[in-house]
Specification:
By secondary structure, this protein is of the alpha/beta class. It has a single domain, classed as 3-Layer(aba) Sandwich (Rossmann fold). The strands form 3 sheets. It has an 8-stranded mixed sheet. The N and C termini lie far apart (54 Å).
Length: 351
């Protein structure tokens, strides 16, 4: 209690500390951070302050009937910002899932509204299957940003994923340690570059502690060529890849697309210029997780809007996997896995 009073920023972000303690510390830390950022006034502070205010607004709102309670398990302004928000108590729940976001995710208002909604929707749907479920979004690393000056090429490399994967392993180990159940069911979910981060975490020190299932959506590859290499058994690796999601069709590095990728929209720009060769299951970060050769369980998803629509380019197919309104098949499959009912997921033919 003394440390909690004096060092809320340390206690609130320390892996293995009980969720209720982290939440109490971080609610104090949130107010301190908002005060600090309000006094700075630079563009970075303004962006992060808007996110913190939105998170604070949601924390103060009265939950609707049946809505999972909200816990603030991490917050900080270092780098692109840090935030870990859980819907449902991860210590008392039998099923615990953590979602790792990807490219262009940072502590901004879009994150505070969009990524938190993904976690909330996942928790709500999974709790209809098994009420003892918590799902969260984990922004515990600096995801690549594009455009981002000279750092734009980070999305084409693995450095951010390796660093993030190490931090994610520590976080999941802490969740396992603080959970009240002897053997909780734990799921790691990676979206976009976040799937590469989850993949990196599986290759460090014997896999991700406590994780039983892995869900990969909108993935440009995870750094391994077989589902069984992720350490949970290939029957416990689930993949969603929308037909119109260009990120899931990124050509491999060997196809010489790095220069084009850096000039336009990162790897997404490479697809607009030159779609991968038919029958080639190599993506930017290894074999296509949705391919037959990878060996995961691919679940049905909505194809999503086409890349070239009426009067504009659209990457919306990359962002609706968690949305029960826009892609109920995908959102429902993710919820089944999170609730420990992966065997009920309806499979789709591999690419």
């Amino acid at each position: 209690e003394e440390y909690l009073a004096v060092y809320p920023d340390l206690i609130g972000n320390l892996d293995g500390i009980p969720a209720l303690v982290r939440d109490a510390a971080n609610r104090d830390n949130l107010r301190l951070l908002m005060g600090e950022l309000a006094g700075r006034g630079d563009a970075d502070a303004v962006t992060k302050l808007a996110a913190l205010r939105e998170i604070d607004r949601q924390l103060r709102a009265v939950p609707k009937p049946g809505e999972p309670p909200m816990y603030l398990l991490g917050i900080g302004d270092e780098g692109n910002g840090r935030a870990i928000v859980s819907y449902g108590n991860p210590d008392t729940s039998r099923n615990v899932a953590a979602y790792v976001p990807g490219l262009n995710t940072s502590l901004d208002e879009e994150f505070a509204k969009g990524d938190l909604k993904r976690a909330r929707d996942t928790a709500a749907a999974a709790r209809e299957i098994d009420h003892s479920t918590a799902a969260m979004v984990w922004l515990g690393y600096d995801a690549p940003q594009s455009p981002d000056g000279l750092s734009s090429l980070a999305v084409a490399g693995t450095g951010r994923a390796e660093t993030g994967g190490h931090a994610f392993r520590g976080f999941m180990a802490g969740l396992e340690a603080s959970n009240d159940h002897d053997d909780p069911h734990m799921t790691a979910i990676g979206h976009s570059y976040g799937s590469r981060t989850v993949g990196a975490a599986t290759q460090q020190g014997g896999g991700i502690p406590g994780v039983d299932d892995i869900v990969l959506v909108g993935s440009p590859g995870v750094g391994v060529d077989r589902a069984e290499d992720l350490g949970v058994g290939k029957e416990h690796v689930f993949v969603g890849a929308a037909d119109n999601d260009v990120v899931t069709r990124l050509p491999s590095k060997e196809q010489g697309m790095l220069a084009a990728a850096g000039r336009v929209l990162g790897p997404a720009g490479a697809v607009m210029a030159d779609v991968a060769r038919p029958g080639d299951d190599d993506l930017w970060f290894g074999r296509d997780p949705a391919s037959e050769g990878f060996g995961a369980r691919r679940f049905a998803v909505d194809p999503g809007p086409p890349l070239i629509g009426p009067g504009r380019l659209s990457l919306d197919a990359h962002s609706q996997y968690f949305d029960p309104r826009l892609d109920s098949a995908s959102a429902g499959s993710i919820a089944l896995v999170v609730a420990g009912q992966g065997q009920r997921v309806r499979q789709e033919a591999a690419r």
